[in-house]
Design goal:
alpha+beta
């Protein structure tokens, strides 16, 4: 009997611009500014992708999952009691 090897599927691409992440975090009750998100990126040495938008502006994109983990740690460090 042959055993099939399971190949894990790659994680979905969850790159988002910093402003969009900031807007989503506003809804959590623990908002974070774009500059705070940039500090998390630097502190955690998270990879970012810089792309040009249609208006010619450059935007930094980062993994939303990585930012959510940094946000969780930030909220816990603030000493906020979670339900």
């Amino acid at each position: 009997m042959a055993i099939e090897h399971l190949i894990p599927a790659p994680a979905p691409n969850d790159l988002m611009p910093l402003q969009a992440i900031c807007d989503l975090l506003q809804q959590t009750g623990h908002p974070a500014s774009v500059s705070t998100i940039r500090r998390w990126i630097a502190a955690e040495d998270l990879p970012t992708v810089r792309r040009r938008s249609t208006g010619g502006w450059r935007r930094d994109y980062v993994s939303y999952s990585d930012i959510l983990m940094a946000h969780r740690d930030w909220v816990r460090a603030k000493g906020v009691n979670e339900p």
